[in-house]
Write a structure and sequence with these properties.
The chain is of the alpha/beta class and 323 residues long. The chain contains 10 helices and 13 strands. The chain has 2 domains: 170 residues, Peroxisomal Thiolase, Chain A, domain 1; 142 residues, 3-Layer(aba) Sandwich (Peroxisomal Thiolase, Chain A, domain 1). 33% of the residues lie in helices and 25% in strands. The strands form 4 sheets. Strands 1-7-6-4-5 form a 5-stranded mixed beta sheet, with helices on both faces. A 4-stranded mixed beta sheet has the order 8-13-12-11, with helices on both faces. A two-stranded antiparallel ribbon has the order 2-3. Bound molecules: acetyl coenzyme *A. Homodimer.
């Protein structure tokens, strides 16, 4: 049975680090407020002129190096992003060109903070259906470009970055023992558009707009929906919470992460947390956390990972991957 196996990962963070203290010098906030509400201490912000595709290209190159491959061996590339370089062409085609990938096809996926889960599910589907044999899956964002830097309730929460994972077709047994994507679950509900959105776009204002959020409402949905979708994906794969080695959640807020881990029966020692250093990097946050934990040796071959995320739409989802 064909399965999609992860064979490498990588990430990239812009050089510039902005601490809570630095923000507190510019707007009416404090390190204490940001840390106790969210767990965030610092975030990386892209340099002037540094685009989402630049971050994605750096992450993709790191993943290729990690897998010992060249771009010519890829036959598909998916970029999850809500902050594309341009309305079109897709950021993915810019990345395809940037890494020197002459074959195959590339496209973007837009599911905001759930984007990486959506991209992984689609890449898995391409492999299972025989459309592609080796797929680069990237989450990349420059949320700093769509923040209202005078709105203290949102601008302190986000950061920029990119992470990438390469999936490859491999023979498996079809059981949860396979080192592969074991199951994915996707959901969305457009009835909640107004609690998290960007106030612009090509067919409305013609401008990029700014991120707007009703934080408390988003929080309320997140803790319920993430717990449900974590349970759903484990049931789908026939896996118990006790078998998980790591939860690699979307990194929006430490309190949401703690609540989801508790409901899944996982101690925080089994949760990869990077939100303190990266802030919320939307679609990039899961592959950034994954790649960080692979690089520092926490995630090892054969480990069972639960990934989950929720964002604007609302759109949410989960994936089980045996690394
Ligand atoms: N610094 C200081 N004070 C602030 C700040 C700030 N940066 N931001 C807001 N405040 C003030 C508010 O003005 C308010 O003051 P008031 O009581 O005088 O009116 C007070 O702090 C409380 O504000 P709330 O918004 O009620 O604060 P809350 O405790 O709900 O925390 C937060 C806000 C952190 C945004 C929280 O609601 C949250 O984490 N929500 C989830 C949001 C999230 O994670 N979104 C991302 C998920 S989806 C995605 O990833 C795109």
């Amino acid at each position: 049975q064909v399965r999609a196996r992860a064979i490498g990962c990588g990430h990239y963070l812009p050089e510039r680090v902005v601490t809570n203290e630095e923000l507190a010098r510019r707007i009416d906030t404090s390190d204490e407020w940001i840390r106790t509400r969210t767990g965030i201490r610092r975030r990386h912000i892209a340099a002037e002129g540094e685009k989402t595709s630049d971050l994605a290209i750096a992450a993709a190159r790191a993943a290729l190096a990690n897998a010992g491959l060249t771009a010519s061996s890829l036959d598909a590339l998916v970029v999850a992003t809500a902050t594309p370089d341009q309305t079109f062409p897709s950021t993915a085609t810019r990345v395809q060109y940037g890494i020197g990938m002459p074959n195959g096809f590339a496209f973007d996926i837009q599911a905001v903070c759930a984007g990486f889960i959506y991209a992984l599910a689609n890449a898995n589907g391409l492999i299972l259906s025989g459309q592609a044999k080796r797929v680069m899956v990237i989450g990349a964002e420059t949320f700093s470009r769509i923040l209202d830097w005078d709105d203290r309730s949102t601008c302190v929460l986000f950061g920029d970055g990119a992470g990438a994972v390469i999936l490859e077709a491999a023979e498996g047994t079809g059981t949860a023992a396979d080192r592969a994507v074991l199951a994915t679950c996707l959901h969305s509900d457009g009835a909640h558009n107004r609690i998290l959105y960007v106030s612009g776009g090509p067919s409305t204002t013609g401008l990029a707009g700014h991120l707007r959020m009703e934080g408390k409402e988003v929080f309320r949905h997140a803790v319920v929906k993430l717990a449900e979708v974590a349970e759903e994906v484990m049931a789908k794969a026939g896996v118990e919470g006790g078998e998980l080695d790591w939860m690699v959640p979307h990194q929006a807020n430490l309190r949401i992460i703690e609540s989801t881990a508790k409901k899944a029966g996982l101690p925080m020692s089994k949760v990869v947390v990077t939100v303190q250093d990266h802030g919320n990097t939307s679609a990039a946050s899961i592959p950034l956390a994954l790649s960080t934990a692979v690089a520092d040796g926490r995630i090892k071959p054969g480990h069972l990972l639960l990934m989950e995320g929720i964002g604007g739409g609302l759109a949410w989802g989960s994936a089980l991957l045996r690394w």
